[in-house]
Amino acid sequence: MWLEAAVVCGGAVCLASSLLLGPAAVSVGLSGAGLLLALLYPLVDLVLATVVLAQALLHQRQFNVRTAALSGGFLLLAVADSSFVVGSTAGTYASGIALDTRNAANPT
Known about the structure:
Number of domains: 1
Distance between the termini: 28 Å
Structural class: mainly alpha
Radius of gyration: 15 Å
Number of strands: 0
Number of helices: 4
Helix content: over 70%
Largest sheet: none
Shape: flat
Order of helices and strands: HHHH
């Protein structure tokens, strides 16, 4: 059963990274190590969310509100990290109360 969960979660991470991070990689305008470092944080956030969901599927973690909040928190971190990468490379990133509130409200 763990092998099936690993295959499903691995496929989900590959699909999410190709659909979400592929267009972001093109718009960032970086290549090589700079691109890897810029996309590493959102990718790690997606992997952590996948690990939590895999634990729930394998019944190693109860699927309850705390599990959903943890997974949702990692997904929100992935969105925040992606928006930081795109905004900072485009020169439009600015720290402000809305961004700080969004990051502070994250349950992870």
